[in-house]
Design brief:
The chain is of the alpha+beta class. The chain contains eleven helices and 13 strands.
Length: 360
């Protein structure tokens, strides 16, 4: 019996056909690890409509599509996940019989860097450099079961949040949560709050890039049983007090961009939003509220578990990749040496430029 040779066809992301999208969904549903909305074909299509550098490697074994590898590619051939720094999960949907470096060559890539690679991506296993966790709330048993589990582990996070909610209502007026709104002015206000937050934190304002705003606007108005944008709002005495822009698949609600009125910070409006979302999510078929990675205290206190995600890079031999490797080694050496104190200030300026380039 002759084995089928693996073939790869690269197509622009915006040219995904209905047949390919249907096959994509079948492969995604066959693996629970791929249940995040980031793995839905609609997410890749949304990014492809606002960026011209989005491509999909379609992996075939004979006449059967066995996998999809979505990626972004710059003019130097360096690759990133679709959405770049906005991507909280990535990897191959389905499988690949091609080794990682062969996959990159056929995709016209010299490198592919990842920082949220999900488990079971054996093609990239040898290129993982470190791992971290994405915090999740398991709502498969409903909100009351979640409450019981938090009480059982001795956590008072829900009780403290409810106390702050009562204080907020007492001092500012009635609080109303809307799970899903489509008012563009809510998204505009949310992004204004978020931009101000980035500036205060000396971080790049990611919403100063036209494509990031356009992407969220497009996702907001994308609705369907398999993928949908979700803009949630918390109104205080009739006025917008906090909001969150995220997206959902059939079973996972991904927490993405929350923010609030600065004068409400003492009431933990971000926690209030998450808890209200956790209450309504099971009624929509959502079993996981994914809060993303990071060591923020509210994430670690609210979580019931975590999904491991990996960081690393696949690189082909090239002068550009060699220079990048030397820069990373130099940075590592300086961090461990007595020079670190002297290098911190210019290093911060350089890092601001590097972070900003991640969104270009």
């Amino acid at each position: 019996m002759v084995a089928c040779m693996a073939r790869l066809e690269v197509i622009p992301g915006r040219e995904l056909s209905e047949d390919l999208m249907s096959r994509w969904r079948v492969l995604q549903k066959s693996d629970p690890v791929l249940s995040s909305p980031y793995f839905c074909p609609e997410f890749t299509m949304a990014v492809a409509t606002v960026r011209s550098d989005v491509f999909v490697g379609v992996l075939r074994a004979g006449n059967t599509v066995e996998g999809f590898f979505p990626f972004q590619r710059n003019i130097l051939g360096n690759g990133r996940p679709v959405g770049g720094a906005l991507s909280d999960y990535h990897g191959i949907v389905g499988s690949s019989s091609l080794p990682a470096r062969d996959l990159l060559r056929q995709c016209g890539l010299k490198s592919w860097c990842f920082d949220h690679l999900v488990p079971n991506q054996q093609v990239f296993a040898d290129h993982v450099q470190s791992t971290s966790e994405s915090h999740v709330i398991d709502l498969s048993g409903g909100f009351e079961e979640y409450r019981r589990l938090k009480q059982q582990e001795g956590s008072d996070v829900l009780r403290r949040a409810e106390k702050r909610r009562r204080q907020l209502e007492r001092e500012h007026g009635p609080v109303v949560f809307r799970e899903s709104v489509t008012d563009p002015s809510v998204l505009t206000q949310l992004l204004a709050w978020k931009s101000a937050q980035y500036v205060r934190s000396s971080l790049p304002d990611i919403f100063s890039f036209k494509w990031t705003r356009s992407l969220l606007e497009r996702i907001l108005f994308t609705t369907g049983p398999e993928f949908s944008g979700v803009l949630s709002a918390l109104y205080v005495n009739g006025e917008l007090g906090a909001a969150h822009m995220g997206m959902r698949s059939a079973s996972v609600w991904h927490w993405w961009f929350p923010s609030h009125r600065p004068n409400l910070a003492r009431y933990s409006p971000g926690v209030q939003l998450r808890i209200e979302a956790a209450k309504t999510a099971p009624h929509r078929g959502i079993t996981i509220l994914d809060m993303g990675k990071g060591d923020h205290l509210h994430k670690t206190r609210l979580r019931t578990g975590a999904i491991p995600v990996a960081e690393g890079a696949v690189e082909l031999p090239s002068l550009v990749n060699w220079a990048g490797m030397m820069c990373r080694r130099s940075e590592s050496f300086i961090r461990r040496s007595r020079l670190y104190g002297l290098a911190r200030l210019p290093g911060r300026s350089i890092m601001r430029v590097v972070r900003r380039r991640r969104f270009s």
